[in-house]
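Table S2 (continued). Query chain:
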Amino acid sequence: MKNKIRIYVDGGNRLTKVMEEAKKPFSFPTIVSEPGMELDYGTSFDLFDLHLEPQEVDLDHMLVEIIKDGESLGKKLVGKAAENKGVLIRDRNRYEKKYNDQVIKFCILSGIASNFVKYEKNQQSVDITINQPLVEYVSNKKDFSNSHGEALKGNVKVLYYNPNNTSEIIKEIVFDIENVTFCPEGIATFFHYSVNESGSIKDEYMKNKKTIVFDVGSGQINVAAFNGVKTVGVNTFEKGMLDCYEKISMILYNNFREKLDRKPYTYDIDNMIRYNEKMLKVKKGKTIDATAIVHDVFDGFAYELNKDFREFVRTKFIGNCDQVIFSGGGSELLFDYLSNYLGNDFYCVKPDTAEYHNIIGSMYYRIYKDAANNL
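Corresponding output:
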């Protein structure tokens, strides 16, 4: 094994985010499904293509088998491949315990391996830092390290298969997970803003600067209050962007049932909003413009969050703070709506790295801890 590499991962309900230290982060949908026998063609139907070029790993077409300490965790389609080609798929709104969810675990391990594919590395020793919801982390921190952290350690072999020929292995990645560190969501974002690259605290945060981090995720919303660098309160709201997507899906299905074969999955709605300008493709190649529906649902959700936020701030800072830092992929979609309700009373900081706030913040968290340990 080579020198230990630090990897930062955030297994979200909607997206799995991965970043090797000092490298560019990437993400893919947190979803797995069975490949199905119909994908195993076993031969080429193109008679003119007798000399097929070697297959390469494509993050949008991942069929992987994970072998952890000699035991197979299964062969699954992961990410976009699961959305586009999978069978027996389940559309789950959120995971009961993120740190113990098998789908998230499978995606995290696939993501670490895919990072090594991207940078052409293999046989690595890994030190991983994992983001976790604030309340889960605070309520059972010891359980995290004992039941989840220790279970993740060990040897991992990831086999990448050709999705069109499920017996053909096109890549093998092996790594050892030696260290596992947990960094709570929201607090990680705070370190992104408050810590210098040297690991020291920025001067403005050494004073009593009152900061709220509002991390809008797909399944939960994490909020944390800081007075200077001291944490004075945290909370997790069991709501998120997937609740919006589910509501949008129901409205579309009820209003346009004759044009739809099924009720859209929540990931269909997310893809429609992020990549298709809120246009949903339906039967006969036609589209439904969901702009007005999305606007109404987002505005209503932002109004709810505005009330939750004000109540939280009132209990910590008597309703006042110096800045509100928004983070998470949901904040990128909701910022204008939230700013509309909060902007007159609070200084709102727009997210600059969207869904990657927490894993980048985790890197600064580790830099800060390294500097503190070397004092």
